[in-house]
Amino acid sequence: MEVAFHFNVSDPTAYSCRLLRKAQSRGARVTVTGPRQQLMALDQQLWALSGTAFVPHAWADAPAEVLVASPIILCEDLPNPAVPTSSILLNGWPEVPAGYAKFERVIEVVGLSEDERAQARLRWKAYAQAQHTLIRHDVAQTTVAT
User: Fold this and answer.
1) 79: helix, coil or strand?
2) Is this model's pTM higher than 0.90 or not?
3) From 3.40.50.10110, 3.40.50.2000, 3.30.420.360, 1.25.40.10, which CATH number describes the 2-139 domain?
4) For residue range 18-37, what is the model confidence (pLDDT) as tens digits?
5) Is residue 142 very low, low, confident or very high in pLDDT (cuts 50, 70, 90)?
6) Listing from the earlier edge strand, what are the strands of the sheet with 105-109?
């Protein structure tokens, strides 16, 4: 399994929206897990994207026909048997979520605070101990100053 950490993200919610838009445009199915308040903020930003950048998404408690048609599923708990199979998990929890191993790829978005960075280091260690392939993306190094 591949676990990609995206470090030094100044706005994790907006960055996650961009990642989800990119994944959806490539035909990927993504499950997003995290605290309800964080998921609600992501949901609002996904709805606020321009019409040409719309990212279809649904909450895990939506009707089955909606879930099947939605490439992005928001859910607090894993595993959630109502959620169709996704190959990618975007984790918003400060710890490694139970049930993550059923995904082919996990994405971790890490903000700028020392608390977020410390929690990410613990998750990194847990994934490394489980012998997953770890990939580090330093967003600060790819940001162009204007």
Assistant:
1) coil
2) yes
3) 3.40.50.10110
4) 999 999 999 999 999 999 99
5) low
6) 57-59, 72-75, 30-33, 88-91, 105-109, 2-7, 133-138
